[in-house]
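## retry 2 of 3
previous attempt timed out at serialization; input unchanged, resubmitting
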Amino acid sequence: MEYDPVRSTTPVTLLTFGHGTAGREELAGLLHGAGVEAVVDVRTAPGSRRNPDVGREALQGWLPEEGIGYRWERRLGGFRKVAADSPDTFWENLSFRGYAGYTRSPDFLAAMDELLPQAAAMPTAVMCSESVWWRCHRRIIADFAVLARQARVLHLGHDGRLAEHHPTAGARLRDDGLLVYDRAQPPREPTMDL
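## retry succeeded, writing output
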């Protein structure tokens, strides 16, 4: 079911965070502090050799014990290949360029159209491993949510601060409602300022 911003009285709010080196106690405190009730794991390979608390099986155990739902969403995972004819010329970083192209796929669209109604029903955060959101594919997920689905996206820092997402300068919504990064501005690193 696609999130319909026209029929909704308030825009859906989606949070994002990266677990980084934080363990169970720090993550539980961070998520509770932000009011998160569900985590959607958007890592391609949901595990960590250095941090056993953030492996998929561990998260499936301890997050529900903390009163927080958990699910792994493989379709939103990163590390996508760049198409030879990619129009996403804004991105010099090939990982971002590949993921930008992936946002136009049926799998990505279906996953987002499951994620956003979930976020409308309960405070939900997408999680990856990278702590800095603008260095992670969560940046592109956030761009899509804001531009294509009129959602509000907040990035949760390890200090508990929430930063409003502002779409990447090179992003635009095509006439068909899909995202493309073909504007000429070079990428700049955002700040955590609100």
